[in-house]
């Protein structure tokens, strides 16, 4: 068991009687604690902070790279001229499984993270992700048959599941509060960078014999970098306390996360003491309720926030809108079918720019304003797409250009809101005592809803038509907007312990 925390009288009084402490939402937004004020004043060692972000974020880059590379790899693999195999004549079911096997693996990885992620810890889970990525890449790019390809795709998906569960928590728990939003949102930017790199690799090797092997094989280098980086980086001090390590051990790793400014061990010990006190108070109520604690009391609202954001991120139309993106651009005269990969690259750059806007403003504007504004705009875009496809002739220039503008508005609004901020909130809102399993449930919700939407979307579109399909997505957008307005708080600039205190009034 961890040593008894050394806590200031102020903090002891604050934590000692949680039942009488019910701060209002307004008070918590307006009045940062002494701990937060001190942390805001601390200088940041940008070298170590950048590394604490960069190596875990490679897990997201590899996720995005797989999305972009697979778009070209499946075309290369199925072509008699470029496959370089005797088993290129894949059926629709086989090619669909080759694409979706990674998603099935990600679901399994999220389930594994739920089952034993807390025992592994953030650092070792990211190491496991790097191993999965590396082994899967070798299996896939050397595949001598369809079965080996699918096995490699599933193992790669396992890496995605572990990485997307552990990376937000690791970054949130090891980086300073005032740049936490910037860095976790930037992780989403790394996913988009990965998508772009995958598209570029596809464009480069699409005409080469066996080009799909090169597309997949290029992911080996970042997989090795992820593993090497996590071998060198420290474990999350907060997870160490949760796992039962002493404050001395947690303090040593916390000093490493502060870089040159961690030499003042006394100040770091004070931070660790506050972490330990908050964690122990949270853990007592969680241990008493067991697994049911995830769905009750102070944990229910953050779990609802995390899972609902992950759900709405996937069911507000992104697959449908992006599926028809190339067709919309072709009708506008921007590209022929042969130039579809270039259109994808251009759209990817636009996604990256809009993600960068969210990254640069999330710690100044705040999470709630970006979510509310972005979801409002993407809902307007969905209404416009619904109207165009319901009431205007498909060949009409007005319909074509309205669709182009609505598409760009949707993509931009999504990348400035749901895209980065959903994962950011998952990294922030969960109390430490349940952060691992709660984040795993959120990841399961994300990948599960993604899989279901991808599965049923073609049938829905065939039976209802694009106009009504977009109208349904617009309705879901309105529901998500109301949900965000009512349950999502502002967490900008708060320590993780302060965010945890937001949920005390729900006990």
Automatic annotation (TrEMBL):
GO biological process annotation, one example: D-glucose transmembrane transport
Subcellular location: Membrane
Domain of life: Eukaryota
Family annotation (SUPFAM superfamilies): MFS general substrate transporter
Classification via Gene3D superfamilies: MFS general substrate transporter like domains
Matching Pfam families: Sugar_tr (PF00083)
UniProt cross-references to InterPro entries, sorted A to Z: MFS_dom, MFS_sugar_transport-like, MFS_Sugar_Transporter, MFS_trans_sf, Sugar/inositol_transpt, Sugar_transporter_CS
Transmembrane segments: 46-67, 87-114, 126-147, 153-172, 184-202, 214-233, 370-392, 404-426, 469-488
CDD domains: MFS_GLUT10_12_Class3_like
Record field: compositional bias (Polar residues): 21-38
Topology of this chain in the membrane: Multi-pass membrane protein
Domain Major facilitator superfamily (MFS) profile: 52-492
Disordered: annotated span: 1-38
One cellular component term from this protein's GO annotations in UniProt: membrane
Family stated for the protein in its record: Belongs to the major facilitator superfamily. Sugar transporter (TC 2.A.1.1) family.
Protein name from the UniProt record: Major facilitator superfamily (MFS) profile domain-containing protein
Source organism of the structure: Apatococcus fuscideae
């Amino acid at each position: 068991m961890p040593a008894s925390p050394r806590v200031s009288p102020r903090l002891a009084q604050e934590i000692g009687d949680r039942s009488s402490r019910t701060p209002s939402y307004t008070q918590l937004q307006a009045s940062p604690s002494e701990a937060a004020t001190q942390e805001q004043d601390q200088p940041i060692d940008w070298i170590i902070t950048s590394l604490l972000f960069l190596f875990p974020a490679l897990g997201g880059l590899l996720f995005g790279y797989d999305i972009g590379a697979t778009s070209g790899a499946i075309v290369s693999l199925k072509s008699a001229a470029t496959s370089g195999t005797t088993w290129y004549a894949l059926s629709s079911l086989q090619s669909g499984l080759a694409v979706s096997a990674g998603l099935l693996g990600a679901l399994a990885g999220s389930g594994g993270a739920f089952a034993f992620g807390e025992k592994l810890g953030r650092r070792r889970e990211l190491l496991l992700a790097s191993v999965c990525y590396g082994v899967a890449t070798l299996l896939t790019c050397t595949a001598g048959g369809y079965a080996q390809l699918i096995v490699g795709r599933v193992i790669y998906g396992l890496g995605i599941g572990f990485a997307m569960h552990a990376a937000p928590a690791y970054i949130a728990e090891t980086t300073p509060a005032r740049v936490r939003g910037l860095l976790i949102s930037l992780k989403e930017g790394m996913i988009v960078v990965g998508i772009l790199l995958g598209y570029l690799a596809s464009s480069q090797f699409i005409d080469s014999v066996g080009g799909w092997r090169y597309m997949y094989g290029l992911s080996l280098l970042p997989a090795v970098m992820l593993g090497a980086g996590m071998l060198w980086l420290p474990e999350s001090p907060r997870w160490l306390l949760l796992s039962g390590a002493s404050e001395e051990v947690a303090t040593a790793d916390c000093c490493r996360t502060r870089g040159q400014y961690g030499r003042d061990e006394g100040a770091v010990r004070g931070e660790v003491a506050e972490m330990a006190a908050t964690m122990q108070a949270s853990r007592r109520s969680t241990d008493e309720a067991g697994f049911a604690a995830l769905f009750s009391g102070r944990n229910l609202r953050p779990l609802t926030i995390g899972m609902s954001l992950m759900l709405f991120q996937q069911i507000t139309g992104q697959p449908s809108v992006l599926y028809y993106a190339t067709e919309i651009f072709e009708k506008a005269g921007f590209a022929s079918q042969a130039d579809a990969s270039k259109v994808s690259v251009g759209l990817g750059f636009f996604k990256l720019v809009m993600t960068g806007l969210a990254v640069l403003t999330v710690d100044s504007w705040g999470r709630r304003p970006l979510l509310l504004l972005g979801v409002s705009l993407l809902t307007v875009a969905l209404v416009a797409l619904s109207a165009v496809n319901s009431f205007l002739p498909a060949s009409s220039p007005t319909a074509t250009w309205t669709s182009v503008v609505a598409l760009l508005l949707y993509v931009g609004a999504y990348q400035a809101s749901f895209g980065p901020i959903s994962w950011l909130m998952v990294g922030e809102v969960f109390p430490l005592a349940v952060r691992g399993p709660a984040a795993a449930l959120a990841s399961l919700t994300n990948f599960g809803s993604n899989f279901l939407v991808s599965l049923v979307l073609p049938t829905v579109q065939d039976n209802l038509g694009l106009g009504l399909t977009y109208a349904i997505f617009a309705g879901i957008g309105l529901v998500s907007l109301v949900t965000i307005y009512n349950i999502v708080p502002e967490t900008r600039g708060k320590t993780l312990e302060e965010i945890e205190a937001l949920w005390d009034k729900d006990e």
